[in-house]
Design brief:
Rossmann fold, six-stranded parallel beta sheet, four-stranded parallel beta sheet, 11 helices, 34% helix, 15% strand, globular
């Protein structure tokens, strides 16, 4: 019997997006290597600066929502296991060595009649050399409801992080508004030439200016790390969040709206229906990007490498004519078919 993999949910306190991505990576890795998979739900997660957990929106509801969204219970092995921990190692980042290790462990498990479960804390290193492994998440999903009846409006969605992200705070995660503007300009110009209507939805994390939030929901470890990346905590233990009025800074585009202050599951469901989804340097928008059906994903270079069919752009945000044609023609063909 094959060994199984699972996500180390007992020792992780990262944000909800990062933990969901790790569960997905472990699942996809198990499928890529022909192994079993055991689903372990998230037990606790760090609050992002704009998370709002209160009586009307309790934190504990998210655990069930994430479980239902991922739908991995049906793939989870129910056998009794001998538990081991797979430590991060450069050895496992080399695909051939990882496969040889799997063969050896599978043989040993079969020989002694045990069923091994290997707990993976962070699968990123195991998938970094083969990012197309993540296609298994898409292949395991059911089609979106009513997807065969697309609306006759081109659906452009963006995820723009600000909150505790800026040129000076967590600058490695910052993506300038001008990067998004250049991409939108090229896409909307092509849509206008084809006389094809469009709408633009911006998902962002700060609804209004001068917003302050408490640091009480953030772990000491995450807060300490954020301080090293430039975050300033006020004397009253609050954080003043970065704000940008995108309706003004992107006012040259028509039919534009902003979505904020909704729970992650609802935001992901909206984003996965996009004809083109433009990502931030954030795991939050990676989750729905893995579920895009007959749409296109555009990602900034230098944060995450996903499936090979994504379009990756550097800071110049130069879309080739070939990619513009690919984005537009795919949607028009789908609507006309």
């Amino acid at each position: 019997m094959p060994i199984c993999l699972c996500y180390d949910n007992e020792h992780s306190r990262d944000g909800i997006g990062a933990q969901v991505l790790r569960i997905i990576q472990v699942y996809c890795l198990s499928r890529e290597l022909g192994l079993g998979f055991v689903n372990r739900n998230i037990l606790h997660f760090d609050s992002a600066p704009t998370d709002s957990f209160d009586f009307a929106n309790p934190r504990n509801q998210y655990y069930k929502k994430v479980r239902d969204y991922l739908q991995f219970d049906r793939y989870s092995c129910q056998e009794e296991h001998t538990v081991h921990y797979l430590n991060n190692s450069r050895f496992f980042t080399i695909s051939i060595l990882l496969k040889l290790w799997v063969i050896q462990r599978n043989w040993r498990s079969k020989f002694i009649g045990s069923h091994e479960l290997w707990v993976v804390k962070n699968p990123y290193g195991l998938t970094i050399r083969k990012p197309n492994t993540l296609r298994h998440f898409y292949l395991s999903r059911l089609p979106l409801k009513n997807f065969n009846k697309p609306e006759e409006v081109f659906n452009i969605q963006l995820h723009i992080r600000r909150a505790a992200i800026s040129k000076n705070i967590h600058s490695e995660r910052f993506t300038a508004t001008d990067w998004y503007r250049k991409i939108l300009t090229e896409i909307t110009k092509a849509l206008d030439l084809n006389k094809y209507p469009y709408k633009i939805t911006i998902h962002t994390d700060v609804a209004h200016a001068d917003l302050k939030i408490s640091t009480s929901g953030i772990s000491k470890e995450s807060l300490a790390y954020s301080k090293t990346r430039g975050l300033i905590v006020n004397a009253d233990n609050t954080i003043t969040l970065e704000y940008e009025n995108f309706l003004n800074s992107l006012s040259s585009f028509k039919n534009i709206s902003i979505v904020t202050d909704i729970n992650p599951i609802d935001a992901w469901t909206m984003m996965q229906s996009a004809d083109v989804l433009i990502l931030a340097r954030s795991t939050f928008s990676i989750i729905p990007a893995l579920l895009i059906q007959d749409g296109t994903v555009i990602s900034p270079i230098g944060f995450f490498r996903g499936p090979r069919e994504w379009i990756y752009l550097d800071d110049s945000a130069e879309l080739s004519l070939q990619n513009i044609r690919r984005i537009i023609d795919k949607r028009i063909t789908l609507t006309q078919s």
